């Protein structure tokens, strides 16, 4: 055997084809099942209601999933590295309250830009603290972010002693209302752009690929020279920032902020990521899958509303869908 | 004697296995396997991975059902429907990966599933006393109330044996019992096996370490490709002969010829010590093209030492220089940058990301090559992977899951990952652990080739023959201390073991 030369003789034809195939399958890796589910769901709703398959309703669904979608991007990163973030709902509320407190005329009145920036910084710091608790204090992510969930919720309440802040400038609320080019609100656009950026990041950036390695085996990644600790801190910080951004989007949609908002959102977010084919043990998942997971939850809620199903039954249905989605995924993997 | 076992069915009350067959789909993993185990005898079952040893033992231990064939045990037909049924019949198995509950006590582990009860509550006093008696029978001085997690692997294995004894096992199947044991612990295990043997117990002993088979076994059964290819009535068969039967061809040369090392010193380690004192004041140097073997018993600090040199664990004092330049060992990344790479001890936990492809595994740690400016393109990964695969002769394609590869091919992927940098110092920790005898030769060739291409190579191995056959010089550690560096000419089994046990 020769270690030196003769290495680069590559057969061009089949390899190029394989590479193209690999690219396509990478984009939809593990998302075929959820995608089929989404298509079937849309098909069923189109047949059973007159209103589902209208441009207006589809745009409504997109509007409704913006908050969930933005948070789910951050959660995808965290789950990819084998972590979990239970604090996103609370961080959303804290960021929204910080923005309201800094920007609103009844409080600090420093203007919207200052409010938004402060909110994002605070949210990022929350995430960073969670990350440090995991990497330095060696707390399990579940515990670290459970603690942050409580702390952030408490802080959100402390800012105004539990009361809400109402009324923001028109330009701010119109970010989620005015549909540019007839279909795209700024907030929906923001979600789409973020999804594309993070999809490219995860698929084509060395750092993004490193996250998959960390989730697959943190020790292998570390021994391969990947800075596991600092990337972990970054991932939690980014998840925090995105949760904060979701809080700002929610404020624009509601024209108000309240410390109780985002309660239970962490579970919806985790559900969307998992329905999208990510593995809670890390190393498997994609933004494409998460997008499908988010849409499945959004379409399901929307469709059940159109069908006049009570919100209580909706909860039952969504629970069943989560179990079904993950179960079929597990069966499929075992069959392979 | 060499009578066909099927004709001697009534001659004793041991185990007769005759004509066992097992297929999974179109793959026949066991074909017409027949052998016997007499009372009070140790039969070694040898063969490469996939030869059918585990299938046979799983059938005997009740966890797999055969497609055809029959077993007679203690004069009666025996076809256990489950491991529990096998245990009831007096057949136990000690798995390679111990099946203990780490957070329960020793006694609880021994009696799990059948805890002695009194008045609806667990009778702890009786349980501890009985467990204690069994441990004493094995010559083990461990409190029955101690948590299993706090015991060394060897002691945990003893707990499993004690458990089998309380189940009144008459036949024990050992699957690679010494894989994680040092030589003293192995000696203790052998002593116990001999004692139990004298009491009339029978053993089926599966191992890859052929030297110890000669020591403990009475007879040897060799398997290949699901068939029994040889039965030896004595255990002191030449190792070479057994290996040839295992791999089905003659093994002319296990170790490749070594090339002459160069004169330039590439790796200098000076007075290196670890914070946990797992090794202290170790100093050595390795030249270009030289292979330094590191030998020692389990727990001597070999793995800890090489991990520290590769930046994986912190050091408390000392220095490492590569090609004359001091290396700040702040982490694996710094070591890799300085040209020191490590093929770690535990392939599955530290070497490969099992749910990724070969290509992705090769790209990890090479993003500086594969992804200039940080952009990773599948085509570049593919090309990089194909180069690595071609260079080491890995049997696989870049987009194939690495979990589908054999151990030997996975190990080649890990080596290929680093080879293109190229590194200056290549450290391999237990490079052939869990790899088939036939595939080991290929790994040895690769290691010799690394040295020939001018790298300084460090090889850690528990397999003494491997260290001796591969190394220009052998450094011997014992209890964290460097006991000496032997030249190839003076390094013998005896010389190394003398230092290692000092």
From TrEMBL, chain A:
<dbReference type="Pfam" id="PF02653">
    <property type="entry name" value="BPD_transp_2"/>
</dbReference>
<feature type="transmembrane region" description="Helical">
    <location>
        <begin position="181"/>
        <end position="202"/>
    </location>
</feature>
<feature type="transmembrane region" description="Helical">
    <location>
        <begin position="273"/>
        <end position="300"/>
    </location>
</feature>
<keyword id="KW-1133">Transmembrane helix</keyword>
<feature type="transmembrane region" description="Helical">
    <location>
        <begin position="115"/>
        <end position="136"/>
    </location>
</feature>
<protein>
    <submittedName>
        <fullName>Ribose ABC transporter membrane subunit</fullName>
    </submittedName>
</protein>
<feature type="transmembrane region" description="Helical">
    <location>
        <begin position="142"/>
        <end position="160"/>
    </location>
</feature>
<keyword id="KW-0472">Membrane</keyword>
<dbReference type="InterPro" id="IPR001851">
    <property type="entry name" value="ABC_transp_permease"/>
</dbReference>
<keyword id="KW-0997">Cell inner membrane</keyword>
<keyword id="KW-1003">Cell membrane</keyword>
<feature type="transmembrane region" description="Helical">
    <location>
        <begin position="24"/>
        <end position="47"/>
    </location>
</feature>
<keyword id="KW-0813">Transport</keyword>
<feature type="transmembrane region" description="Helical">
    <location>
        <begin position="86"/>
        <end position="103"/>
    </location>
</feature>
<feature type="transmembrane region" description="Helical">
    <location>
        <begin position="312"/>
        <end position="331"/>
    </location>
</feature>
<feature type="transmembrane region" description="Helical">
    <location>
        <begin position="234"/>
        <end position="252"/>
    </location>
</feature>
<keyword id="KW-0812">Transmembrane</keyword>
TrEMBL record, chain B:
<comment type="similarity">
    <text>Belongs to the ABC transporter superfamily.</text>
</comment>
<dbReference type="InterPro" id="IPR050107">
    <property type="entry name" value="ABC_carbohydrate_import_ATPase"/>
</dbReference>
<keyword id="KW-0762">Sugar transport</keyword>
<dbReference type="InterPro" id="IPR003593">
    <property type="entry name" value="AAA+_ATPase"/>
</dbReference>
<protein>
    <submittedName>
        <fullName>Ribose ABC transporter ATP binding subunit</fullName>
    </submittedName>
</protein>
<feature type="domain" description="ABC transporter">
    <location>
        <begin position="264"/>
        <end position="499"/>
    </location>
</feature>
<feature type="domain" description="ABC transporter">
    <location>
        <begin position="15"/>
        <end position="250"/>
    </location>
</feature>
<keyword id="KW-0677">Repeat</keyword>
<keyword id="KW-0067">ATP-binding</keyword>
<dbReference type="InterPro" id="IPR017871">
    <property type="entry name" value="ABC_transporter-like_CS"/>
</dbReference>
<keyword id="KW-0547">Nucleotide-binding</keyword>
<dbReference type="InterPro" id="IPR027417">
    <property type="entry name" value="P-loop_NTPase"/>
</dbReference>
<dbReference type="InterPro" id="IPR003439">
    <property type="entry name" value="ABC_transporter-like_ATP-bd"/>
</dbReference>
<dbReference type="Pfam" id="PF00005">
    <property type="entry name" value="ABC_tran"/>
</dbReference>
<keyword id="KW-0813">Transport</keyword>
């Amino acid at each position: 055997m020769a270690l030196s030369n003769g290495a680069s003789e590559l057969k061009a034809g089949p390899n190029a084809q394989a590479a193209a195939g690999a690219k396509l399958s990478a984009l939809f890796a593990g998302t075929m099942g959820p995608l089929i589910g989404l298509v079937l769901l849309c098909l069923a709703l189109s047949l059973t209601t007159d209103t589902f398959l209208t441009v207006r309703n589809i745009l409504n669904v997109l509007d409704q999933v913006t908050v969930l979608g933005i948070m789910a991007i951050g959660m995808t990163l965290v789950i990819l590295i084998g972590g979990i973030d239970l604090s996103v709902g609370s961080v959303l509320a804290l960021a929204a309250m910080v923005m309201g407190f800094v920007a609103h005329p009844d409080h600090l009145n420093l203007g919207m830009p200052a409010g938004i920036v402060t909110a994002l910084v605070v949210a990022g710091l929350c995430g960073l603290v969670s990350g440090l608790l995991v990497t330095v204090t060696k707390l399990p992510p579940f515990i670290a972010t459970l603690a942050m969930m409580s702390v952030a919720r408490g802080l959100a309440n402390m800012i105004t002693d539990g009361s809400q802040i109402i009324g923001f400038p028109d330009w701010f609320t119109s970010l989620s209302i005015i549909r540019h080019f007839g279909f795209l609100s700024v907030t929906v656009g923001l979600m789409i752009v973020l999804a594309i950026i993070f999809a490219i990041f995860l698929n084509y950036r060395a750092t993004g690929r490193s996250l998959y390695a960390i989730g697959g085996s943190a020790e292998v990644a570390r021994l391969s020279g990947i800075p596991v600790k600092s990337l972990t801190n970054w991932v939690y910080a980014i998840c925090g920032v995105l949760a904060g951004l979701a809080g700002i989007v929610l404020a624009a949609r509601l024209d108000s902020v309240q410390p109780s908002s985002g309660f239970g959102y962490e579970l919806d977010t985790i559900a969307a990521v998992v329905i999208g084919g990510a593995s809670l043990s890390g190393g498997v998942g994609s933004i494409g899958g998460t997008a499908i997971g988010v849409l499945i939850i959004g379409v399901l809620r929307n469709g059940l509303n159109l069908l006049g199903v009570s919100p209580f039954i909706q909860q039952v249905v969504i629970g069943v869908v989560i179990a079904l989605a993950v179960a079929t995924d597990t069966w499929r993997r075992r069959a392979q | 004697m060499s009578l066909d076992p099927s004709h001697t069915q009534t001659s004793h009350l041991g185990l007769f296995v005759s004509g066992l067959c097992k297929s999974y789909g179109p793959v026949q993993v066991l074909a017409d396997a027949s052998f016997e185990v007499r009372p009070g005898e140790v039969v070694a079952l040898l063969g490469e991975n996939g030869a059918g040893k585990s299938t046979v033992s799983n059938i005997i231990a009740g966890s797999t059902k055969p497609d055809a064939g029959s077993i007679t045990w203690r004069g009666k037909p025996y076809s256990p429907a489950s491991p529990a049924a096998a245990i009831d019949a007096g057949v136990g198995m000690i798995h390679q990966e111990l099946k203990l509950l780490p957070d329960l006590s020793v006694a609880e582990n021994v009696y799990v599933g059948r805890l002695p009860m009194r008045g609806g509550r667990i009778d702890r006093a009786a349980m501890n006393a009985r467990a204690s008696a069994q441990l004493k029978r094995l010559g083990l001085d461990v409190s029955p109330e101690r948590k299993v997690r706090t015991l060394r692997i060897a002691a945990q294995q003893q707990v499993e044996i004690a458990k089998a004894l309380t189940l009144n096992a008459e036949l024990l199947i050992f699957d690679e019992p010494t894989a994680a044991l040092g030589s003293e612990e192995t000696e203790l295990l052998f002593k116990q096996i001999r004692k139990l043997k004298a009491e009339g117990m029978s053993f089926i002993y599966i191992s890859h370490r052929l030297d110890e088979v000669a020591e403990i076994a009475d007879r040897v059964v060799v398997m290949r490709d699901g068939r029994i290819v040889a039965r030896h009535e004595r255990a002191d068969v030449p190792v070479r002969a057994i290996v040839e039967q295992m791999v089905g061809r003659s093994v002319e040369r296990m170790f490749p010829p070594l090339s002459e090392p160069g004169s330039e010193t590439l790796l200098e380690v000076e007075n290196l010590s670890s914070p946990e004192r797992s090794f202290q004041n170790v100093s050595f140097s390795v030249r270009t093209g030289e292979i330094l073997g590191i030998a020692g018993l389990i727990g001597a600090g070999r793995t800890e030492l090489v991990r520290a040199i590769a930046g994986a664990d912190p050091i408390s004092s000392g220095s490492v220089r590569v090609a004359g330049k001091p290396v700040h060992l702040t982490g694996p990344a710094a070591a890799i940058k300085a040209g020191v790479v490590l093929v770690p001890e535990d392939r599955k936990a530290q070497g490969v990301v099992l749910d990724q492809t070969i290509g992705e595994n090769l790209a990890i740690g090479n993003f500086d090559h594969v992804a200039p400016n940080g952009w990773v393109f599948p085509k570049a990964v593919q090309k990089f992977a194909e180069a690595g695969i071609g260079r080491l002769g890995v049997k696989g394609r870049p987009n194939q899951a690495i979990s589908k590869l054999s151990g030997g091919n996975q190990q080649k992927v890990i080596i290929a990952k680093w080879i293109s940098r190229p590194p200056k110092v290549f450290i391999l920790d237990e490079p052939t652990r869990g790899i088939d005898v036939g595939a080991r030769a290929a790994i040895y060739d690769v290691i010799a080739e690394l040295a020939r291409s001018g790298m300084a190579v460090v090889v850690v191995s528990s397999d003494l023959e491997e260290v001796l056959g591969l190394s220009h010089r052998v450094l011997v550690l014992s209890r964290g201390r460097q006991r000496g560096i032997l030249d190839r000419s003076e390094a013998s089994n005896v010389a190394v073991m003398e230092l290692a046990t000092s």
